[in-house]
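pasting for ref
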Amino acid sequence: MSQLNLQYQPTCDIQAIRARAKMYSQIRQFFDEREVLEVETPILSQAGVTDVYLSSVQAQRHVNGKKQTHYLQTSPEFAMKRLLASGVGSIYQICKVFRDDEHGRKHNSEFTMLEWYRPNMSLKELMFEVTDLLNVTLKQRFGEVRPTILSYKHAFMDRLDLNPLQASLKELKDCCNRVGLNLDLGDDRLGYIDLLFSHFVEPSLGFDTPVFLADFPPELASLAKTKVDEDGELVAARFELYIEGLELANAYDELIDADVLRSRFVADNEERARLGLHVMPIDEYLLAALPNMSECSGIALGVDRLLMVATEQMKLEKVITFPADVS
């Protein structure tokens, strides 16, 4: 029997396939009851994300007879914000997204995302809504969950006795050496912060109860606003959701200043060029839409990872049918 004959079957079992169908139904009922509209946007776009830490999958297609390079979405964010600016109101989407060369226990280059946007809703109110959704989709496993809120800074300080908002490059390097992470990242201050976070902070989050990790370093604002925290330090107005050391969701108090966002895109591309990465086309449609967009909170949640938690699986391949290496 050939190797292909041995690999034709899905990597997940029928129970996981049924659990996914049930979760989709729960999600749709949840948002229908709140009068949040389900939408659908293209997965291919002429522009992609500029984020240095994300790699878009490129595709060639012809538009009006002209061959063009387009990009599979890493998130439906840009197109959904164009809808928001057009006055559609609260919206959500369940869709496939793509991130090149992301594979492993918690990753696959194609995965399913639930993304939703709530005009005139604060991040705190969005946390309450996320909690309500968890108490629907995870009820069978946990009963009622009551997430806690923890700042990125205090999570870092609790575990490494270091304030990432103030730490110098030398202090970060010394901390890495102290805990046995002997990697030379040059002058990449954010790289050292991410290294420490991924090895010593993230794996400890969300075991007693789900955790909303809030107020990230301002350099990690991405498409979020910045604000001043209770200690007078500048932070990004965003949060992430963690359960059992697994990041499930990423939420922003959405930046709607087109000039500031353009400057971030340009800075990203300058860093991409410095690192020898592909410089991404900027989404001019998004920038044109932002002045017409109201104050808004938005969140992206990984459905496959939520299924991992709901079904107590440790590997993503146990909740998806055909991972990238057998699809």
